């Protein structure tokens, strides 16, 4: 195999060489870390969107219920408070959900595109996040026509630059970027697989030599008898 001729340190680093690896790079875990991060960020974005849209709606609905229920009769004060809370809770669920799925979808698409660009280019740059933001913004504003697409493109790019810069700073503070971690794990797995393959190859060579010696002994004995 091609890996047999390569030293453990000669790890293929270019994008054209990586698909030729004799083993998948995701054997160490069931799901790629990038996929897990996208799911986590989408869940977090959905939770933040729910709170962002639901809490103001809860307060407004509660105030509106109190304002329009001055002439109504309640069994006691607790009944009135519970009725106001129920009205606010309905608005919290309704408007929180509207914001939740939009924010979750935006974050998921943004991270998917930016991560895909980083993996394809094998480097993480601000341009990846700007492009991801522009694409996502344009996609969300597509229903408004060309003007909406242009506005979403500009807004998404403006959002992607600071968001990407913040993510890169957080990764730097952690001591290792996601790209560096991915390359390190891929290199370690490559070297481990190569060492295992060379170990099996050496065992095969020893067995083959032993078998050859065993077959050569009867021929030597026959030659002596003749």
UniProtKB/TrEMBL annotation:
Presence of the UniProt keyword Membrane in the record: yes
Subcellular location: Membrane
A cellular component annotation (GO) from this entry: membrane
Keyword Membrane included in the entry's annotation: yes
Chain residue ranges for the region called Disordered: 206-226
Keywords: Membrane, Transmembrane, Transmembrane helix
Transmembrane segments: 99-120, 149-169
Primary site of residence: membrane
Family from the record: Belongs to the Tim17/Tim22/Tim23 family.
Protein name in the entry: Complex I assembly factor TIMMDC1, mitochondrial
Organism taxonomic ancestry: Eukaryota, Metazoa, Chordata, Craniata, Vertebrata
């Amino acid at each position: 195999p091609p890996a047999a001729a390569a030293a453990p340190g000669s790890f293929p680093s270019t994008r054209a060489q990586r698909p030729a690896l004799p083993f998948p790079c995701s054997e160490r875990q069931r799901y790629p870390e990038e996929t897990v991060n996208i799911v986590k960020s989408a869940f977090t974005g959905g939770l933040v969107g729910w709170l962002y849209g639901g809490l103001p709606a809860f307060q407004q609905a509660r105030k509106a219920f109190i304002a329009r229920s001055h002439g109504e009769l309640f069994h006691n004060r607790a009944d009135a408070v519970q009725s106001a809370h129920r009205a606010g809770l309905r608005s919290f669920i309704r408007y929180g959900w509207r914001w939740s799925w939009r924010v979750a979808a935006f974050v998921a698409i943004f991270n998917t595109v930016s991560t895909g660009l980083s993996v394809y280019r094998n480097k993480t740059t601000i341009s990846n996040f700007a492009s991801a933001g522009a694409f996502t913004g344009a996609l969300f504003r597509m229903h408004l026509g060309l003007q909406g697409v242009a506005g979403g493109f500009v807004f998404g790019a403006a959002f992607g630059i600071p968001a990407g810069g913040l993510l890169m700073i957080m990764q730097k503070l952690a001591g290792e970027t996601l790209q560096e971690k991915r390359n390190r794990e891929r290199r370690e797995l490559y070297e481990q697989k190569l060492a295992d393959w060379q170990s099996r190859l050496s065992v095969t060579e020893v067995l083959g030599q032993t078998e050859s010696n065993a077959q050569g002994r009867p021929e030597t004995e026959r030659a002596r008898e003749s």
